[in-house]
Amino acid sequence: MRELFGTDGIRGKANTYPITPEIALQVGKAIAHVFKAEGHGSAKAVIGKDTRLSGYMIETALTSGIVSMGMDVFLVGPMPTPAVAHLTKSMCASCGIMITASHNPSDDNGIKIFSSDGFKLPDDIELDIETHVLGGEITSAHISTHLLGKAYRIEDARGRYIEFAKSSIKNQSLKGLKIVLDCANGAAYFLAPLIFRELGATVYPIAINPDGFNINEKCGATYTDTMKSEVLKTKADIGIALDGDADRVIFCDSKGNIINGDRIIGLCALDFARKKRLSKNTVVITTMSNLGLSDALKKNGINVEVTDVGDRYVIDRMRSLGLNLGGEQSGHLIFMDYATTGDGIISSLHVLNLMASTGKSLTELADFMTEYPQKLTNINVKEKVPFENVPGLLDIIKKCEEDLSSEGRVIVRYSGTENKIRILIEASSEKKVNEWTEKIGNTIRKGLT
What we know:
By secondary structure, this protein is an alpha/beta fold.
Protein backbone atom coordinates (compact mmCIF):
# COMPACT_ATOMS: atom_id res chain seq x y z
CA MET A 1 0.00 0.00 0.00
CA ARG A 2 1.30 3.44 -0.96
CA GLU A 3 0.82 6.31 1.47
CA LEU A 4 1.18 9.39 -0.72
CA PHE A 5 0.21 8.42 -4.27
CA GLY A 6 -3.32 7.36 -5.19
CA THR A 7 -4.79 6.55 -8.58
CA ASP A 8 -4.20 10.10 -9.83
CA GLY A 9 -1.13 11.47 -8.08
CA ILE A 10 -1.08 12.88 -4.55
CA ARG A 11 -4.35 14.40 -3.39
CA GLY A 12 -6.03 15.60 -0.21
CA LYS A 13 -7.31 18.61 1.70
CA ALA A 14 -5.05 21.62 1.25
CA ASN A 15 -2.78 22.47 4.20
CA THR A 16 -3.48 19.05 5.70
CA TYR A 17 -1.20 16.03 5.28
CA PRO A 18 -0.14 15.15 2.63
CA ILE A 19 -1.00 18.43 0.84
CA THR A 20 1.24 20.63 3.00
CA PRO A 21 4.15 22.91 2.04
CA GLU A 22 6.50 20.67 4.03
CA ILE A 23 5.57 17.57 2.03
CA ALA A 24 5.52 19.53 -1.25
CA LEU A 25 9.06 20.71 -0.55
CA GLN A 26 10.22 17.13 -0.04
CA VAL A 27 8.29 15.95 -3.11
CA GLY A 28 10.10 18.62 -5.15
CA LYS A 29 13.47 17.42 -3.85
CA ALA A 30 12.56 13.78 -4.52
CA ILE A 31 11.43 14.58 -8.07
CA ALA A 32 14.72 16.33 -8.81
CA HIS A 33 16.66 13.43 -7.28
CA VAL A 34 14.75 10.76 -9.21
CA PHE A 35 15.04 12.68 -12.48
CA LYS A 36 18.81 13.02 -11.99
CA ALA A 37 19.28 16.74 -11.45
CA GLU A 38 23.02 17.33 -11.19
CA GLY A 39 23.20 21.11 -11.25
CA HIS A 40 21.73 24.15 -12.98
CA GLY A 41 20.65 23.35 -16.54
CA SER A 42 21.08 19.57 -16.26
CA ALA A 43 17.35 18.91 -15.86
CA LYS A 44 14.12 20.91 -15.89
CA ALA A 45 10.51 20.61 -14.78
CA VAL A 46 7.36 22.30 -16.12
CA ILE A 47 4.91 23.31 -13.36
CA GLY A 48 1.30 24.32 -14.01
CA LYS A 49 -1.71 24.69 -11.72
CA ASP A 50 -5.44 25.25 -11.65
CA THR A 51 -7.13 28.22 -9.96
CA ARG A 52 -7.28 27.07 -6.32
CA LEU A 53 -5.88 29.55 -3.80
CA SER A 54 -3.72 26.80 -2.28
CA GLY A 55 -1.94 26.41 -5.61
CA TYR A 56 0.34 29.33 -4.75
CA MET A 57 1.49 27.59 -1.58
CA ILE A 58 2.19 24.26 -3.25
CA GLU A 59 3.80 25.83 -6.34
CA THR A 60 6.24 27.81 -4.18
CA ALA A 61 7.17 24.82 -2.02
CA LEU A 62 7.63 22.48 -4.98
CA THR A 63 9.75 25.05 -6.80
CA SER A 64 11.97 25.60 -3.74
CA GLY A 65 12.56 21.89 -3.35
CA ILE A 66 13.33 21.37 -7.03
CA VAL A 67 15.75 24.28 -7.48
CA SER A 68 17.54 23.38 -4.23
CA MET A 69 18.54 20.12 -5.91
CA GLY A 70 19.89 21.83 -9.04
CA MET A 71 16.90 21.39 -11.34
CA ASP A 72 15.41 24.32 -13.28
CA VAL A 73 11.68 25.08 -13.18
CA PHE A 74 9.47 26.49 -15.95
CA LEU A 75 6.34 28.05 -14.41
CA VAL A 76 3.35 28.28 -16.76
CA GLY A 77 0.65 29.44 -14.32
CA PRO A 78 -3.02 28.38 -14.60
CA MET A 79 -3.08 25.80 -17.37
CA PRO A 80 -5.10 22.66 -18.19
CA THR A 81 -3.54 19.37 -17.15
CA PRO A 82 -3.25 18.16 -20.78
CA ALA A 83 -1.50 21.43 -21.68
CA VAL A 84 1.13 20.78 -19.02
CA ALA A 85 1.59 17.24 -20.37
CA HIS A 86 2.01 18.64 -23.90
CA LEU A 87 4.43 21.38 -22.83
CA THR A 88 6.52 18.87 -20.88
CA LYS A 89 7.10 16.92 -24.07
CA SER A 90 7.42 19.86 -26.47
CA MET A 91 9.89 21.72 -24.22
CA CYS A 92 12.00 18.59 -23.72
CA ALA A 93 11.57 18.83 -19.94
CA SER A 94 12.60 16.01 -17.65
CA CYS A 95 9.14 15.97 -16.10
CA GLY A 96 5.94 17.95 -15.76
CA ILE A 97 3.95 18.72 -12.63
CA MET A 98 0.31 19.79 -12.42
CA ILE A 99 -1.04 21.21 -9.15
CA THR A 100 -4.73 20.31 -9.15
CA ALA A 101 -7.48 18.31 -7.53
CA SER A 102 -9.37 18.12 -10.83
CA HIS A 103 -13.15 17.95 -10.18
CA ASN A 104 -12.84 18.05 -6.37
CA PRO A 105 -13.97 21.05 -4.25
CA SER A 106 -11.66 24.04 -3.79
CA ASP A 107 -10.54 22.90 -0.32
CA ASP A 108 -8.70 20.00 -1.94
CA ASN A 109 -5.56 20.06 -4.01
CA GLY A 110 -3.06 17.62 -5.44
CA ILE A 111 0.10 16.95 -7.40
CA LYS A 112 0.14 15.07 -10.71
CA ILE A 113 3.50 14.23 -12.28
CA PHE A 114 4.30 13.47 -15.92
CA SER A 115 7.34 11.83 -17.47
CA SER A 116 9.34 13.52 -20.22
CA ASP A 117 7.08 11.85 -22.81
CA GLY A 118 3.99 13.56 -21.39
CA PHE A 119 2.49 10.41 -19.87
CA LYS A 120 1.67 9.99 -16.20
CA LEU A 121 4.41 8.37 -14.16
CA PRO A 122 4.46 4.58 -13.98
CA ASP A 123 3.88 3.04 -10.55
CA ASP A 124 7.52 2.19 -9.93
CA ILE A 125 8.70 5.80 -10.34
CA GLU A 126 5.87 7.10 -8.13
CA LEU A 127 6.93 4.57 -5.51
CA ASP A 128 10.55 5.68 -5.85
CA ILE A 129 9.56 9.31 -5.21
CA GLU A 130 7.36 8.33 -2.29
CA THR A 131 10.13 6.23 -0.73
CA HIS A 132 12.52 9.18 -0.80
CA VAL A 133 9.92 11.53 0.68
CA LEU A 134 8.92 9.21 3.52
CA GLY A 135 12.40 7.88 4.15
CA GLY A 136 13.69 11.09 5.67
CA GLU A 137 14.79 14.49 4.46
CA ILE A 138 16.68 14.44 1.17
CA THR A 139 19.86 16.44 1.47
CA SER A 140 20.74 19.12 -1.06
CA ALA A 141 24.04 20.03 0.63
CA HIS A 142 26.01 18.71 -2.33
CA ILE A 143 24.46 21.42 -4.57
CA SER A 144 26.77 24.40 -4.22
CA THR A 145 25.49 27.92 -4.91
CA HIS A 146 26.52 27.97 -8.57
CA LEU A 147 24.70 24.68 -9.18
CA LEU A 148 21.32 25.78 -7.79
CA GLY A 149 18.45 25.66 -10.24
CA LYS A 150 16.52 28.65 -11.56
CA ALA A 151 12.80 29.31 -11.90
CA TYR A 152 11.55 30.86 -15.16
CA ARG A 153 8.09 32.22 -15.95
CA ILE A 154 7.06 31.06 -19.46
CA GLU A 155 4.94 33.91 -20.79
CA ASP A 156 3.88 32.32 -24.09
CA ALA A 157 2.80 28.93 -22.67
CA ARG A 158 -0.89 29.58 -23.35
CA GLY A 159 -0.23 30.48 -26.97
CA ARG A 160 1.80 27.33 -27.50
CA TYR A 161 -1.05 25.12 -26.30
CA ILE A 162 -3.73 27.08 -28.16
CA GLU A 163 -1.99 26.49 -31.49
CA PHE A 164 -1.36 22.84 -30.65
CA ALA A 165 -5.01 22.23 -29.76
CA LYS A 166 -6.33 23.90 -32.92
CA SER A 167 -3.92 21.88 -35.05
CA SER A 168 -5.55 18.65 -33.81
CA ILE A 169 -8.43 19.39 -36.22
CA LYS A 170 -6.16 21.10 -38.75
CA ASN A 171 -7.58 24.53 -37.83
CA GLN A 172 -10.89 23.67 -39.46
CA SER A 173 -13.46 26.45 -39.25
CA LEU A 174 -16.25 26.14 -36.69
CA LYS A 175 -18.07 29.16 -38.08
CA GLY A 176 -21.83 28.96 -37.63
CA LEU A 177 -21.76 26.89 -34.44
CA LYS A 178 -23.12 28.41 -31.23
CA ILE A 179 -21.42 27.04 -28.11
CA VAL A 180 -22.08 27.38 -24.39
CA LEU A 181 -18.71 26.80 -22.74
CA ASP A 182 -18.58 26.08 -19.00
CA CYS A 183 -14.98 26.42 -17.81
CA ALA A 184 -15.71 25.43 -14.17
CA ASN A 185 -13.86 28.55 -12.93
CA GLY A 186 -10.85 26.35 -13.44
CA ALA A 187 -7.61 26.00 -15.33
CA ALA A 188 -9.09 26.61 -18.80
CA TYR A 189 -11.07 29.73 -17.88
CA PHE A 190 -8.96 32.01 -20.09
CA LEU A 191 -7.65 29.96 -23.00
CA ALA A 192 -10.63 27.67 -23.77
CA PRO A 193 -12.93 30.49 -24.98
CA LEU A 194 -10.06 31.86 -27.10
CA ILE A 195 -9.55 28.55 -28.90
CA PHE A 196 -13.16 28.16 -30.00
CA ARG A 197 -13.54 31.83 -30.92
CA GLU A 198 -10.36 31.79 -33.01
CA LEU A 199 -11.85 28.92 -35.02
CA GLY A 200 -14.96 31.00 -35.76
CA ALA A 201 -17.53 29.65 -33.31
CA THR A 202 -19.91 31.91 -31.40
CA VAL A 203 -19.07 31.30 -27.75
CA TYR A 204 -21.17 31.94 -24.65
CA PRO A 205 -18.64 31.37 -21.83
CA ILE A 206 -19.73 30.75 -18.25
CA ALA A 207 -17.80 30.06 -15.02
CA ILE A 208 -14.80 32.10 -16.21
CA ASN A 209 -14.26 34.23 -13.11
CA PRO A 210 -12.16 32.18 -10.69
CA ASP A 211 -11.58 33.65 -7.23
CA GLY A 212 -9.56 30.80 -5.73
CA PHE A 213 -12.58 29.22 -4.07
CA ASN A 214 -15.30 28.76 -6.73
CA ILE A 215 -13.65 26.10 -8.90
CA ASN A 216 -16.24 23.38 -9.71
CA GLU A 217 -18.82 25.18 -7.55
CA LYS A 218 -22.21 24.54 -9.17
CA CYS A 219 -20.51 24.47 -12.57
CA GLY A 220 -18.32 22.28 -14.75
CA ALA A 221 -18.42 18.65 -15.80
CA THR A 222 -19.72 17.40 -12.44
CA TYR A 223 -22.57 19.92 -12.26
CA THR A 224 -24.20 20.23 -15.67
CA ASP A 225 -27.43 22.04 -14.72
CA THR A 226 -25.85 25.45 -15.28
CA MET A 227 -24.63 24.49 -18.75
CA LYS A 228 -27.98 22.95 -19.68
CA SER A 229 -29.91 26.04 -18.58
CA GLU A 230 -27.64 28.34 -20.58
CA VAL A 231 -27.92 26.18 -23.73
CA LEU A 232 -31.71 26.37 -23.64
CA LYS A 233 -31.62 30.10 -22.86
CA THR A 234 -29.24 31.00 -25.72
CA LYS A 235 -30.58 28.36 -28.14
CA ALA A 236 -27.03 27.14 -28.63
CA ASP A 237 -26.12 24.13 -30.76
CA ILE A 238 -24.10 22.49 -28.01
CA GLY A 239 -22.98 22.85 -24.42
CA ILE A 240 -19.46 21.95 -23.31
CA ALA A 241 -18.60 21.56 -19.61
CA LEU A 242 -14.96 21.11 -18.60
CA ASP A 243 -13.84 20.12 -15.13
CA GLY A 244 -11.40 22.03 -12.90
CA ASP A 245 -8.25 21.02 -14.76
CA ALA A 246 -9.92 20.50 -18.17
CA ASP A 247 -8.85 16.88 -18.64
CA ARG A 248 -12.45 15.75 -18.90
CA VAL A 249 -15.62 17.05 -20.55
CA ILE A 250 -19.37 16.45 -20.57
CA PHE A 251 -21.65 17.71 -23.34
CA CYS A 252 -25.23 18.89 -23.73
CA ASP A 253 -27.17 18.88 -27.00
CA SER A 254 -29.43 21.70 -28.19
CA LYS A 255 -32.45 20.07 -26.52
CA GLY A 256 -30.82 19.99 -23.11
CA ASN A 257 -29.94 16.29 -23.13
CA ILE A 258 -26.70 15.49 -21.29
CA ILE A 259 -24.27 13.54 -23.47
CA ASN A 260 -21.68 11.68 -21.42
CA GLY A 261 -18.33 10.15 -22.33
CA ASP A 262 -19.79 6.85 -23.53
CA ARG A 263 -21.70 8.42 -26.40
CA ILE A 264 -18.80 10.71 -27.31
CA ILE A 265 -16.37 7.77 -27.46
CA GLY A 266 -18.86 5.89 -29.61
CA LEU A 267 -19.64 8.64 -32.11
CA CYS A 268 -15.93 9.42 -32.51
CA ALA A 269 -15.14 5.72 -32.94
CA LEU A 270 -17.74 5.40 -35.68
CA ASP A 271 -16.32 8.47 -37.42
CA PHE A 272 -12.73 7.21 -37.13
CA ALA A 273 -13.76 3.77 -38.42
CA ARG A 274 -15.49 5.28 -41.46
CA LYS A 275 -12.34 7.24 -42.24
CA LYS A 276 -10.07 4.20 -41.67
CA ARG A 277 -8.37 6.10 -38.82
CA LEU A 278 -9.28 3.80 -35.93
CA SER A 279 -6.16 1.88 -34.96
CA LYS A 280 -6.75 -1.88 -35.19
CA ASN A 281 -10.45 -1.08 -35.36
CA THR A 282 -10.50 -1.14 -31.55
CA VAL A 283 -11.63 1.18 -28.75
CA VAL A 284 -10.70 1.05 -25.04
CA ILE A 285 -13.41 1.67 -22.43
CA THR A 286 -13.80 0.84 -18.71
CA THR A 287 -16.05 -1.37 -16.62
CA MET A 288 -18.18 1.71 -15.87
CA SER A 289 -19.19 2.17 -19.51
CA ASN A 290 -22.77 1.29 -20.35
CA LEU A 291 -23.24 -2.15 -21.90
CA GLY A 292 -25.20 -0.44 -24.65
CA LEU A 293 -21.98 1.16 -25.89
CA SER A 294 -20.26 -2.20 -26.31
CA ASP A 295 -23.32 -3.60 -28.09
CA ALA A 296 -23.48 -0.67 -30.53
CA LEU A 297 -19.76 -0.72 -31.33
CA LYS A 298 -19.69 -4.48 -31.88
CA LYS A 299 -22.71 -4.25 -34.20
CA ASN A 300 -20.66 -1.81 -36.28
CA GLY A 301 -17.67 -4.15 -36.42
CA ILE A 302 -15.60 -2.27 -33.84
CA ASN A 303 -13.69 -4.27 -31.22
CA VAL A 304 -13.85 -3.27 -27.56
CA GLU A 305 -11.17 -3.55 -24.88
CA VAL A 306 -12.36 -3.14 -21.28
CA THR A 307 -10.14 -1.98 -18.39
CA ASP A 308 -10.52 -1.11 -14.72
CA VAL A 309 -11.84 2.37 -13.91
CA GLY A 310 -9.26 5.16 -14.25
CA ASP A 311 -7.86 6.99 -17.25
CA ARG A 312 -4.36 5.70 -16.49
CA TYR A 313 -5.58 2.12 -17.06
CA VAL A 314 -7.23 3.14 -20.32
CA ILE A 315 -4.03 4.83 -21.46
CA ASP A 316 -1.87 1.87 -20.41
CA ARG A 317 -4.02 -0.51 -22.49
CA MET A 318 -3.99 1.86 -25.45
CA ARG A 319 -0.20 2.13 -25.34
CA SER A 320 0.36 -1.58 -24.95
CA LEU A 321 -1.89 -2.41 -27.91
CA GLY A 322 -1.02 0.57 -30.10
CA LEU A 323 -4.54 2.05 -30.09
CA ASN A 324 -5.57 5.67 -30.62
CA LEU A 325 -9.03 6.11 -29.07
CA GLY A 326 -10.40 5.35 -25.62
CA GLY A 327 -11.96 6.87 -22.56
CA GLU A 328 -14.37 6.83 -19.67
CA GLN A 329 -18.04 7.55 -19.19
CA SER A 330 -17.02 10.37 -16.83
CA GLY A 331 -15.59 12.34 -19.74
CA HIS A 332 -11.90 11.42 -19.76
CA LEU A 333 -11.42 10.97 -23.50
CA ILE A 334 -8.03 10.08 -24.95
CA PHE A 335 -7.15 10.89 -28.55
CA MET A 336 -3.70 9.31 -28.59
CA ASP A 337 -2.80 10.71 -32.01
CA TYR A 338 -2.63 14.13 -30.34
CA ALA A 339 -2.61 13.89 -26.54
CA THR A 340 -0.98 11.75 -23.87
CA THR A 341 -3.80 12.19 -21.36
CA GLY A 342 -7.48 13.06 -21.28
CA ASP A 343 -8.02 16.45 -22.92
CA GLY A 344 -11.42 18.11 -22.66
CA ILE A 345 -10.60 20.83 -25.18
CA ILE A 346 -9.23 18.53 -27.89
CA SER A 347 -12.18 16.15 -27.33
CA SER A 348 -14.57 19.07 -27.79
CA LEU A 349 -12.82 20.20 -30.96
CA HIS A 350 -13.26 16.76 -32.52
CA VAL A 351 -16.96 16.71 -31.71
CA LEU A 352 -17.45 20.23 -33.07
CA ASN A 353 -15.47 19.41 -36.20
CA LEU A 354 -17.65 16.37 -36.79
CA MET A 355 -20.79 18.49 -36.41
CA ALA A 356 -19.42 21.12 -38.80
CA SER A 357 -18.23 18.66 -41.44
CA THR A 358 -21.36 16.46 -41.47
CA GLY A 359 -23.99 19.14 -40.83
CA LYS A 360 -25.49 16.87 -38.17
CA SER A 361 -26.53 17.95 -34.69
CA LEU A 362 -25.06 16.40 -31.58
CA THR A 363 -28.47 14.80 -30.99
CA GLU A 364 -28.22 12.97 -34.32
CA LEU A 365 -24.59 11.97 -33.89
CA ALA A 366 -25.16 10.59 -30.39
CA ASP A 367 -28.22 8.56 -31.37
CA PHE A 368 -26.34 5.37 -32.26
CA MET A 369 -26.87 3.33 -29.09
CA THR A 370 -29.57 2.22 -26.68
CA GLU A 371 -28.49 2.52 -23.08
CA TYR A 372 -29.23 -0.09 -20.43
CA PRO A 373 -30.89 1.47 -17.37
CA GLN A 374 -28.00 2.45 -15.13
CA LYS A 375 -27.52 4.27 -11.84
CA LEU A 376 -24.34 5.49 -10.17
CA THR A 377 -24.56 6.30 -6.46
CA ASN A 378 -21.83 7.84 -4.30
CA ILE A 379 -21.80 7.36 -0.53
CA ASN A 380 -19.41 9.29 1.73
CA VAL A 381 -17.42 7.12 4.14
CA LYS A 382 -15.09 7.92 7.03
CA GLU A 383 -12.48 5.39 5.94
CA LYS A 384 -11.95 2.78 3.22
CA VAL A 385 -12.59 -0.48 5.05
CA PRO A 386 -11.95 -3.74 3.12
CA PHE A 387 -15.24 -5.03 1.73
CA GLU A 388 -14.91 -8.33 3.59
CA ASN A 389 -14.99 -6.36 6.86
CA VAL A 390 -18.27 -4.60 6.03
CA PRO A 391 -21.10 -6.76 7.46
CA GLY A 392 -23.20 -8.34 4.71
CA LEU A 393 -21.67 -6.40 1.81
CA LEU A 394 -20.09 -9.29 -0.10
CA ASP A 395 -23.25 -11.38 0.36
CA ILE A 396 -25.58 -8.68 -1.00
CA ILE A 397 -23.28 -8.07 -3.98
CA LYS A 398 -23.26 -11.81 -4.75
CA LYS A 399 -27.07 -11.97 -4.62
CA CYS A 400 -27.26 -8.98 -6.96
CA GLU A 401 -24.89 -10.61 -9.45
CA GLU A 402 -26.92 -13.82 -9.40
CA ASP A 403 -30.17 -11.94 -9.98
CA LEU A 404 -28.88 -9.77 -12.82
CA SER A 405 -26.94 -12.64 -14.44
CA SER A 406 -26.03 -11.79 -18.05
CA GLU A 407 -28.62 -9.01 -18.29
CA GLY A 408 -26.84 -6.52 -16.10
CA ARG A 409 -23.99 -5.98 -13.68
CA VAL A 410 -22.98 -4.50 -10.37
CA ILE A 411 -19.76 -2.63 -9.59
CA VAL A 412 -18.95 -1.50 -6.07
CA ARG A 413 -15.63 0.26 -5.52
CA TYR A 414 -13.96 2.99 -3.53
CA SER A 415 -13.11 6.27 -5.23
CA GLY A 416 -9.41 6.57 -5.95
CA THR A 417 -9.30 10.24 -4.95
CA GLU A 418 -12.01 10.77 -2.31
CA ASN A 419 -13.45 9.02 0.77
CA LYS A 420 -16.44 7.72 -1.16
CA ILE A 421 -17.77 4.35 -2.18
CA ARG A 422 -19.37 4.14 -5.61
CA ILE A 423 -22.21 1.79 -6.53
CA LEU A 424 -22.99 1.19 -10.20
CA ILE A 425 -26.03 -0.94 -11.04
CA GLU A 426 -26.98 -1.74 -14.62
CA ALA A 427 -29.95 -3.94 -15.46
CA SER A 428 -32.64 -4.68 -18.03
CA SER A 429 -35.21 -2.64 -16.08
CA GLU A 430 -35.27 0.59 -14.09
CA LYS A 431 -37.08 -1.26 -11.29
CA LYS A 432 -34.21 -3.69 -10.75
CA VAL A 433 -31.65 -0.88 -10.86
CA ASN A 434 -33.43 1.02 -8.10
CA GLU A 435 -34.10 -2.06 -5.97
CA TRP A 436 -30.49 -3.23 -5.91
CA THR A 437 -29.11 0.28 -5.52
CA GLU A 438 -31.23 0.68 -2.38
CA LYS A 439 -30.32 -2.75 -0.96
CA ILE A 440 -26.58 -2.38 -1.45
CA GLY A 441 -26.64 1.26 -0.38
CA ASN A 442 -28.45 0.43 2.86
CA THR A 443 -25.96 -2.35 3.63
CA ILE A 444 -23.06 0.09 3.14
CA ARG A 445 -24.68 2.81 5.26
CA LYS A 446 -25.28 0.40 8.13
CA GLY A 447 -21.73 -0.90 8.01
CA LEU A 448 -19.66 2.17 7.14
CA THR A 449 -21.42 5.46 7.90
